[in-house]
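Entry 14. Structure prediction run on the chain below.
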Amino acid sequence: MELVTEVVQRTPTPADVDALDVGPERELADTVARLRRVMRRAARSADPGNALSVAQLELLSAVSENPGARPSQIARHLHLAPNSVTTLVNGLTTLGLITRSSNPDDRRTVQLTLTDTGAGSRTTLATDQRRDPAERL
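Output returned:
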């Protein structure tokens, strides 16, 4: 006697979708979304005229803490895809906040450093981050 198992694909019901909206995964997603909103507000309040995104500010911070780092190192540090870091670096280079230069030890790679303007943007963000966290919420 042969046993045949049939896999049936079906469209999720509203009850199935509701079941996905509860639990630790959903709570984590909500917390991350709230945290990103707070970070955007903090970045904007530090310098209301600043048009940089949170991702750009995070990259500036990472380069400030790791001058001369390669883009791949920054990608690992920020847990971003390398192509995302490349896009961010391109934008920040265009704005004059970051410079790319050949790595003297390995001419196949580049290293990233902040310009004076980039360092100024980073300092403004760091000053705001030292404020009371409850005040920023």
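The mean pLDDT is 79.
Filed with the rest of this week's runs.
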